[in-house]
Each structure stands twice: as C-alpha cells, then as structure tokens.
Amino acid sequence: MKRQVAIVGGGPAGMMAAIRAAEVLGDGARVVLFDKNERLGRKIYLTGKGRCNLTNRRGWEEFSPHIHPNQGFLKSAFRAFSNEDLIRFFEEELGVPTVTLQGQRVYPASLVAGDVARSLERRVHELGVDIRYGTSVASLADLADFGAVVIATGGKSYPVTGSTGDGYRFAMEAGHTVTPVFPSETALLPQDYDPGLPGMEMKNVGLQLYVDRTMVESEQGDFNFTADGLESGIAYHLSRRAVWALYNGQQVDIVMDLKPALTEAQLVKRMQREEQAGGFWSREHFSASGTKARAAEPVAFLRRFLPEALIAPFLRAHPGLTIEKLPAALKSWPFHIVDYKGFDRAVVTAGGVSLKEIVPKTMASRLRPGLFFCGEVLDLDGDTGGYNLQIAFSTGAMAGANAAKYVLG
C-alpha cells in the first residue's frame, strides 16, 4: 500500500490534519501538505477581527445548536477533540495562552490572530511535514501516488486567501454531491438604506427575521450598521437563513427592537414619567411643522430613549410618528432586506460536500476509499463566536488521524 498522506489546503483544518497525521505515522516526512499561498493559515489572520476567536467554551448541549445544518454530524469529531482539548492543545503543546471573554469566546491571550497561525505552522514544521508552498493541485489524479488524501481546501469565502471552491471540484470528481453553497455571516442590505445609519454600533437590541412575513428566528445582542448593511454580531447569526431565503426568491424582512428589555406597556409608563419630569412633549406629530421650539421637542424627548445619531434616521423611517405610536416604533423598526454581500466579504461558506456521503466518525468518503474531507469544504458551518474554527480543528484532527491509520493498513 502507498504509505504517504496528501493534505490539500493549509488553513486551520489542513494544518490540524497534518499535525495529527504526522503524529500517528511517527514520521512527518510521510505527510505532504499542499497550499496555494507562501505561508499557511492566511485566513486565520483575518478571523475575529484580527484577534482569532479560536473556539467557544460552551459544553456540547449549548454548543451544538450553533452548528448547521446537521449538528449530530459533528458530535463524534467534537467528542474526540473538543473545545477543552483544543484549549489544552494551544496552551500546553503550542505554548499559546488563551483567554475566555464575553459569550464564552476563547482567544489567544495576546488577542493577535497571527500568534495562532504561526504556532500551528511552527508545529507542522517541527513534525517534519513536507510543505509545498505556492502549489495548486489541479485534480485528484495529481495525487494518485498517495495512499490517502485529505481535502481541506475551505469554502469560497475570502477568495483572496485561496479559498476558491477547489474542494468542491475534487469532491465531484470523486462522485460526491455538493449541496448549493452560499455566503453566511455576511452583511444584509436593506431597501432604501438610510445614509445616516452606517457607522453606528447597536448595543443590546433585538432582531427578528421574517421570511415571507413569518417570523423564523430572533436574536438579542449587538451588531453594526456598516456601508454594506446590517453586519456582525446578531446580524451575522440571522444572515445564514436570510441569504438562503433570498437565494430562493423569498421575501426577507428584519425587525429591530430598540428596547428588548421593556414591553410596550412599560414604555408607555416610562414616557408618562418623562413627560411629568419635563420631557418637552407637545403631543403633535413629530413631522408636523411649527415653531422652532415645537420642532425641537421630539428630538429633545427622543434623546431620553435613543442615541443622538440614531434619532434622525429613526424619524425618517417613521414619518407621521406620534407619541401614541412611539412605543410600537421603538419595539419594531422594520428593514426590508433586498441583498447581501457575496463571498468576497462573507466570513463563512454555507453548503458544500454532502454529509450523507461522509463517515462522521472518520471523515472518510463513503464513495472513494482513502479520501477524507474536513473543515469548511463540508456542508457544515456554525454561528459567529468560535464555532466555525472548532469545526475546522475537530474535523481536521479526525480526518488527519484516520487518513494516517488508513495508509498504515
């Protein structure tokens, strides 16, 4: 039997696969890692806004709901190399201390993504893996001399890092099904997007996603208005389902709740207290003309409920607003979503190699012996918050170890 393992792709999944394969084989020279770039882990440098959110520390029961579309597929790989195993791996084997921040998100203590990428690349070198930098693989036929092949090419997001969908072509060459791929964790663009919104950071708000006028998902937390639309944080959480709906020609709307901790009735009582305290409310239309003093009253009143920069866009979005309508407006500011940013800006690729054709306990192809898949090339992705890198590391470790076992016979 041919005794070498080929790994295509030097991202987080590919480097972890190379490390585990070299450890199982006991001879890193029998592992050949192909990567298009002149350094490994280019995408890692971009993750977590340059800080690299390694994983999320939640236990499986809380972790698994953040995995799509089939959380059960990841269970074996996660149990074999969990988030706690990953933290120990970085701290004890790679010498990279970690820190756990809000939302159980785990980062390198330095908050520098490059420390993660360089430590992994250093470990691959230490094990003696044969790294073929700047090398593209055209087809599986180019790897016919290897006993096992691991496809870790990533998806199509951030193509500047080399993720251009090559793995899907390799999978189809082997007879695999590739489910439709689409951007996830990406910006959602509203119709008639108000130019006053980009640059605003929204804190502790609620977002509800409606598809064909039916509420299908809701989140509470933070997100940003950017030049491209609703982005990051909870907007990313909703983007997977929103993009898929747009892809299928469905109507997509997002409703923002500016006061998720209060009911409309509680807002009414608070407004009454503000009026009694001299809140400068004339009970006329916010948009009505009048004296300068009267025109300034709505803004003065709204300062008690909204950030200054948000008031003008809020008023433009709610023409004819009255004090009676204000509680409902604060609880439900609608945005009709008409577009999204593509793979050039998307953090994650959803869709990919069908999980039905992969053995979850080994990451082996059910169709071609000696072929393994791991990471983003699979039809497996997670929410923002460290889940996607854990998928990459867990499935990469599983694929690399079992590819090595396969060539050992």
Provide a descriptive summary of the structure in words.
This protein is an alpha+beta fold. It has helices at residues 12-25, 60-63, 71-80, 83-93, 113-126, 166-173, 233-247, 264-276, 292-302, 308-317, 326-331, 387-408, and strands at 5-8, 31-34, 55-56, 67-68, 98-101, 105-108, 130-132, 148-151, 182-184, 188-190, 201-211, 214-226, 229-231, 252-257, 333-340, 348-350, 358-359, 364-365, 371-373, 381-382. A six-stranded antiparallel beta sheet has the order 10-15-14-11-12-13. The protein has a five-stranded parallel beta sheet with strand order 7-2-1-8-19, with helices on both faces. Strands 3-6-5 form a three-stranded antiparallel beta sheet. Strand 5 and strand 6 form a beta hairpin. Helix 3 crosses helix 12. The protein starts with a strand and ends with a helix.
Short recap of the structure:
With 409 residues, this protein is of the alpha+beta class. It is built from 12 helices and 20 strands.
